[in-house]
Design goal:
two-stranded antiparallel ribbon; binds zinc ion
């Protein structure tokens, strides 16, 4: 599934699924899904749109990491389709970004969050 190019089903074919907003169930809502692998787009945090890879690369530069660390983190993020705004929410990105940073650096989470 990591190799999937994710093709959106389009507006007409959405599936109705339960959704949550601010931690509470809000009934059913049409969800987009990928016609290739079936992954459903997370709509719970639509207010915070996913950012492009460049946004996070800027943060890495400002955290004063070594080039090797930046390369390892970037490689990890590219492997999970991090920059794909169609299937990644901002919240998911932040979680993955922090996880990758912790894996390859000793930057503390509160310091990372200050940049997000
Ligand atoms: Zn897919």
């Amino acid at each position: 599934m990591g190799d999937c190019k994710h093709i959106c089903c389009g507006a007409a074919e959405k599936v109705w699924l339960p959704y949550e907003f601010e931690g509470r169930s809000r009934g059913l809502k049409p969800h987009s899904y990928c016609i290739l692998c079936g992954i459903v787009k997370d709509t719970s945090s639509e207010s915070k749109k996913a950012k492009g890879m460049g946004y996070y690369m800027d943060i890495l530069a400002r955290l004063e990491l070594t080039k090797v660390q930046i390369r390892l983190i970037a490689k990890e993020l590219e492997g999970v389709k991090f920059g794909d705004a169609n299937f990644m929410t901002r919240r998911q990105q932040e979680r993955l970004f922090i996880r990758a940073l912790k894996k390859y650096s000793s930057v503390r989470e509160d310091r990372i969050r200050a940049f997000l």
